[in-house]
Amino acid sequence: MNKEIENYLAWKGTYATRACNNYRIWLERFNNRTKKSIGDVNIDDIIKFNSYLKTKFQPTTIQYATIIIKNFFEFHKLQGVSCISPSIIKVPRATACSYQPIVKDECLRLLSEIDTSSFVGLQRNIMVRILYETGIRVSELTDLNVSSINTSNKSAIISTKKTTQKRRIVWGSETNSLLCDFIKIRKSINTNPALFIGTKAGGEVSNRITTRSVQRTIKLLCEKAEIVSKITPHSFRHGKAHRILESGGNPKDVQAILGHVNPVSSFVYLQWNDMEFEKRARMFVEN
Questions:
Q1: What are the tens digits of pLDDT across the range 187-213?
Q2: pTM of this prediction?
Q3: Which residue, 50, 136, 164, 286, has fewest beta-carbon neighbours within 10 Å?
Q4: Quick one: the chain helix, strand, coil %, rounded to 5?
Q5: Number of Cα atoms under 13 Å in the Cβ half of residue 120
């Protein structure tokens, strides 16, 4: 099945380059578990793989992996390859993940744990600030280039993920000042266009930081700051949506600033946590 996987990923790469990395991981796992040719895979293999996933992964991950496998067979079925019908591969339901929105105090605690005297520390500080102040997606953060940054008006033009439409993100004066210093250092390291670059244990740098690296950084900072809330890079996006509303904004503002094409997507970010719910609910209680 190796040849079919490579053919599928080559096609996938023509329009979703980043997704190919994840698709390869799951397809190779499936291939290593089944050890069959594409034409010999049957529904029992799908069921066994699903059972294996249940012992190691969360429901949302299992759902994602199943979608990849279903799409893989659907692609080859459309090419006339003799293989299992994708219609009998059922994608399991999974409850949508509810992200905890980060609040200002938590963000300040994260920043307080960062030593900005080093390049790595300064980079981490700026990444946290941009996540918090703009509500940018983590994949959009890692895609930022040095040339994207306009320090004159404290903004950048980025491509909205999934739609490639352009939108502007903006940040504050303190973050902009740090960015100016950071960019000077960043340009002296290498000529790669990426704004944020990865670092290795030996001090070497990679071309561009990965989303996984950002996730690990946020987790590490939360542990240092002893923050018990489950804060992830996506929590910054939810936190931005909440602050927009608390400052008098409306769902239309959330849609524009976070880069949602479908306004329904914006409402997902407006779920209240327990404290917010009680605060709002008591506004409508008759004494």
A1: 999 889 999 998 776 667 778 899 999
A2: 0.66
A3: 286
A4: 60, 5, 35
A5: 13
